[in-house]
Specification:
The chain is an alpha+beta fold and 422 residues long. It has a single domain, classed as Beta-lactamase (3-Layer(aba) Sandwich). 32% of the residues lie in helices and 21% in strands. An 11-stranded antiparallel sheet has the order 2-3-5-4-19-18-17-14-13-12-16, sandwiched between helices. Strands 1-11 form a two-stranded antiparallel ribbon. Strands 6-10 form a two-stranded antiparallel sheet. Helix 1 crosses helix 10, helix 2 runs antiparallel to helix 13 and helix 3 crosses helix 10. It is an enzyme of class 3 (hydrolase). One of its GO terms (cellular component) is outer membrane-bounded periplasmic space. Keywords: Antibiotic resistance, Hydrolase. It comes from Achromobacter piechaudii.
Length: 422
């Protein structure tokens, strides 16, 4: 089967997933509980449906979190768990060592590279609207790059880190868009496109640029005024508004100095999202096509329409095998059931710092339910992890105001989600 024929088949599958239906995001209140960890702990749990799996025992989760916070000197941490759209929130510590404001489900955290999954969704949403195709060259939307090596790539290469070898970060010498264009015009691949995965912010960043240009909007506007409202995410931002700054957690670096992400070239597209546990778990539900509860009593249902549902599903198409992991559009997935060892391998630091051989899937793998889909994200002062299993309708969000090791995040998430499986 040719790549284009495979794409048509996957498009038909995605349309069937969307089914022309509307996914409702429902609303229920949350019951509060209390405790004490690293200044304060606040837990919130919704009642569980009769057919939902039981949540893990609270004491077991609390013990694991307390140990993690002590080991890595974490000021504050938020966890959200979804099981068939019903949520449990557990909040620990403080959002700021200066104000001692407690973490709660609406505290805003930087999520680093988890932002890439939002950027990928913006691109697939533009594709659903007919504004682009993922086989397009980025030069279609950035004409200055026509005739360059970069212009020979397609948007799938950019969204899967297989363009041929970009650096992890935009070079320090690139300070503005004009310098970025000059850098990309002079760029030359180290590998044949589609053969090697080299994790890179410039790659996914330019996917975001192309998507926004196809929608004829600046990227932040396309995200904050177009996509995020359609996802029902009212507490997620590129630029945190002044009225929400009091909810924005303070990040801390290894020296325990307060830090927040610095603006920079392609920062918004690659690692610019700030969000809360309550919003990010709704994004997880939307990715699974699950109706999602709210903690706000009487709140009208938010709606994810068929176009957005199709766009979300399209980000779960698998394009390359890299070790135990399949690379989707920004998301990464492993066959489920999955071992902790494979998860740790797939999320090891070397997966981002070193180039990895990539085996192209031809045809690309259509979205599946029996997979563990995940993404890590970090900035200098924050660490985050998202994971979900569509077939089981379960997912977890972990947000911390310190960049703790990926291994610690993955171990905690695995303990939470797999507690009801054994």
């Amino acid at each position: 089967m040719s790549f284009h024929a495979a794409r048509r088949a996957i498009s038909q599958t995605l349309a069937a997933i969307a089914g022309g239906a509307m996914f409702s995001v429902l609303a229920v209140p949350v019951v509060q509980a209390g405790g004490l960890v690293a200044d304060s702990v606040r837990s919130a749990a919704s009642a569980q449906s009769n057919n939902a799996e039981p949540v893990p025992p609270s004491a077991n989760v609390d013990d694991a979190v307390q140990a993690l916070m002590r080991e890595y000197d974490v000021a504050g941490l938020a966890i959200a768990v979804t099981r068939e759209g019903r949520h449990e929130f557990r909040s620990y510590g403080v959002a700021s060592l200066q104000t001692h404001a407690p973490v709660d489900p609406d505290t805003l955290f930087e999520v680093g590279s988890i932002s890439k999954t939002f950027t990928a969704t913006l691109a697939t949403y533009a594709q659903v609207l007919g504004k682009l195709t993922l086989e397009d060259s980025p030069a279609r939307f950035v004409p200055a790059l026509k005739g360059t090596e970069f212009g020979k790539l397609n948007l799938i290469h950019l969204g899967t880190h297989t363009g041929g070898g970009f650096p992890l970060q935009v070079p320090d010498a690139v300070k503005d868009d004009a310098q970025l264009m000059a850098y990309l015009a002079a760029w030359a691949p180290r590998y044949a496109p589609g053969t090697t995965r080299t994790y890179a912010n410039p790659s996914i960043g330019m996917l975001g640029v192309a998507a926004a240009k196809s929608l004829e909007q600046p990227f932040a506007q396309a995200m904050e005024q177009t996509l995020l409202p359609k996802l029902g995410l009212a507490n997620t931002y590129i630029n945190v508004p002044a009225a929400k700054m009091s909810a924005y957690a303070q990040g801390y670096n290894k020296q325990n100095a307060p830090v927040r992400v610095n603006p920079g070239v392609l920062a918004a597209e690659a690692y610019g999202i700030k969000t809360s546990a309550s919003d990010l778990i709704r994004f997880v539900d939307a990715n699974m096509g699950v109706a999602s509860e709210s903690r706000m009593p009487g709140r009208k249902p938010n709606v994810v329409n068929a176009e957005v549902a199709q766009a979300l599903a399209a980000t779960h198409v698998g394009y390359y095998e890299i070790g135990p992991m399949t690379q989707d559009l920004a998301w990464e997935q492993l066959a489920y059931p999955v071992t902790l060892d494979d998860l740790l391998t797939a999320n090891a630091g070397t997966m981002n710092s070193q180039s990895q051989p990539a085996k192209a899937l031809n045809p690309p793998q259509a979205p599946r339910g029996d997979v563990w889909i995940n993404k890590t994200g970090s900035t200098n002062g924050f660490g985050a992890y998202v994971a979900f299993v569509p077939a089981r309708k379960i997912g977890v969000v972990i947000l911390a105001n310190r960049n703790i090791p990926n291994e610690a995040r993955v171990r905690l998430a695995y303990r939470i989600l797999e507690a009801g499986s054994h």
